[in-house]
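Deliverable D4.2, example record:
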Amino acid sequence: MDIHQYLDQDQKKDLLRFLTAGSVDDGKSTLIGRLLFDSKKVYEDQLATLERDSKRIGHAGEAIDYALLLDGLKAEREQGITIDVAYRYFSTNKRKFIIADTPGHEQYTRNMVTGASTANLAIILVDARKGVITQTKRHTFIVSLLGIKHIVLAVNKMDLVDFNEDVFNSICADYKSFVTRLSVPDVHFIPFSALNGDNVVENSQLMPWYHGKCLLEFLETVHVGSDRNFDDLRVPVQYVLRPTLDFRGFSGKISSGIVKLNDELMVLPSRKKSRVTRIITTDGDTESAFTPQSVTLTLADEIDISRGDMLVHPENQPRLERQFEAMLVWMNEEPMDPFTQFFIKINAQTTRARIDQVRHRIDVNTLEHHQANSFSLNEIGRVLVTTNKPVVFDPYSKNHNTGSFILIDPISHNTCAVGMIIDKLSQADLYSRLTDNETRKLVEGGKSLIDKAELESRYGQKGVTIWITGLHGSGKNLAAYTLEKRLFDMGATAVLLDGSTIRSGLNRELDYSPADRAEHLRRVAHIARILNDQGIIAICSFISPREHIRGQVAEIVGKDRFHLIYMDASPDYCRSNKPELYQLAESGKLQHLPGVDEAFDIPVNPAIVLHPQPESVDVEQIIDYLSAKGIFPITQNRS
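Output generated by the structure prediction step:
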């Protein structure tokens, strides 16, 4: 074989990325150092430095401390532990390898997650003297959480238990009973001694009862090619290539699947279709390409495609949603503020997102679920996420590339968390979050220099919220605007808030799903409260279909200042006022319409019930009510 054939063969070698994890002093760094040393992948100058450092700061007595090949930080060498993720590259005649040596301490969980995010395989070390311990279970859980399908349980320090087969079998049995609770399809067990090199690069004669492969042989032969998803084509567009006026290509790395010439593709989110005319790689044009190749595609039609869009096969589409459930690993030093509007980045897509609910926090040592409202550094849990605009994604279990995301702090631009999408949410599971104690405390903590009695004396009224509810077409807005005009004529100071006006401005990014409707009303409630604090009457005209949401609005405003008016109109009356709206909803072309495909709860104890008439509404009941309550005394002639 000449040099060109050798280089070509070397270029085509398969690449295996794997990580090592384990408790403190289980021998992770020693194992990798021994693997590199015995496979003759340590250069002479590195070996000389290693021998010198082993005598000076090593932890292996007179022997070479192979861990020093990986532990590069000063703090790591002083303490004999791994803190940061250390990466090493080496290759054999059969395969190329990238090793991530990850820390075992719980406080460095985020570092381990970083190292495991791109790994195909995990080597989890246990000390033969200690067996399966809490850290072993924690590392296994994190590995399964990140979707790694291959695990090697490496039972180290067999020399310290006299290479006893029963000890090894007992550890294997304990681990099997735990790992069956997790979604890890491929688990192997290897006994070895990293310090002495037994079963690392060559099978050891000291353990004749072990008939499996040594570690290096296993790493060279383990099959990971089928782990890739070749069924679902996903090409996130990272760059629109325009080198000349006559060329327009769309560049990106194929996240999964296979693309061929003349394939029909759909662009998401626009759903425009076209056909592939060229597939360009670094080696020139080709007739097909597959994951994880980077390509530039040209299409037959001039359609609008930009960074963040995704190319897929029309018959096999990912999710295009705003709400989804995910597992979250918090990586920021600052605890999570659940009311922060984060930036979310999924592939090349970036938009705003909020965390609607923390379902639970997971104790990574016991796998127990605990109630939580936020996360601190290194904590892991299950959350519900809502984005400002629809994003394209797959469940992480189906596609790692399109099912993972990061959350970015909008002020510092630090990465706050990494997430793995479980799946989209059904309409029944959408969470409605309206208020919380922290938000209430912020509002209630505001102090004004103007006394409440002074405001009432100045305006001649009390600041209250008149909340008018009812179905679409029930006459809410007519009642609200008529009341506003009547109070204005009488000298009152009132501000009218209605759904259409608020949604066209302040809440224009929110839709009509239960989660967004709750957020919409939460904002309105806080506006009404601010107006009431200034002594102003707030007239609010909103459907607010659910009783518990209206109750939470009253909590925000203050129950003593919240007065509910119910427009009691029959469904036929409402349909006659808004026939086109109800026809769209009943035909399925419009979703989330109360009274049709979404429930409307009739108020239990409204202050007033009005029965509207066509083209008119009698608001004198409301005026009399305000007078009786001392909210706005009548001082002028009603004529």
